[in-house]
């Protein structure tokens, strides 16, 4: 039981520290997670990102809209399914992630 408490406490402190660093960049922890995933493998769909990051579709949709407004990611029509978009980091997004 004590180990679980310690792990939870460490997790909270790490998340707080990460959040403080990301606030300076103008992104949230969830936005950063999306950007990280897009840097690992470019060209995801929103559905793929939601599954990989274990986020609900409405949550990922809001995150993607905010990142697109910040010019951090770009959406292009999916050639194999016109109903979905392919998401990629922009140069701005890559620079922000590497700061």
TrEMBL record:
Against InterPro entries, the record matches this protein to:
HTH_MarR-typ, MarR/SlyA-like, WH-like_DNA-bd_sf, WH_DNA-bd_sf
Species of origin reads Lactococcus garvieae
Q: Which Pfam families did the record assign?
A: MarR
Molecular function as annotated in GO:
DNA binding; DNA-binding transcription factor activity
Q: Which UniProt keywords apply?
A: DNA-binding, Transcription, Transcription regulation
Q: Does the keyword Calcium apply?
A: no
The domain of life is Bacteria
HTH marR-type domain residues are: 1-99
Organism taxonomic ancestry: Bacteria, Bacillati, Bacillota, Bacilli, Lactobacillales
Q: Does the keyword field hold Transcription?
A: yes
In terms of SMART domains, this protein maps to: HTH_MARR
Listed name of the protein: MarR family transcriptional regulator
Q: Name one GO biological process term.
A: response to stress
């Amino acid at each position: 039981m004590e180990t679980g408490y310690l792990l939870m406490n460490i997790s909270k402190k790490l998340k707080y520290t990460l959040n403080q660093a990301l606030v300076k960049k103008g992104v949230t922890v969830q936005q950063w997670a999306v950007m990280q995933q897009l840097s690992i493998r470019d060209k995801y769909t929103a559905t793929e990102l939601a599954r990989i990051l274990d986020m609900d579709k409405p949550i990922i949709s809001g995150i993607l809209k905010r990142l697109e407004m910040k010019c951090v990611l770009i959406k292009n029509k999916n050639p194999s399914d016109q109903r979905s978009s392919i998401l990629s980091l922009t140069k701005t997004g890559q620079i922000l992630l590497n700061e």
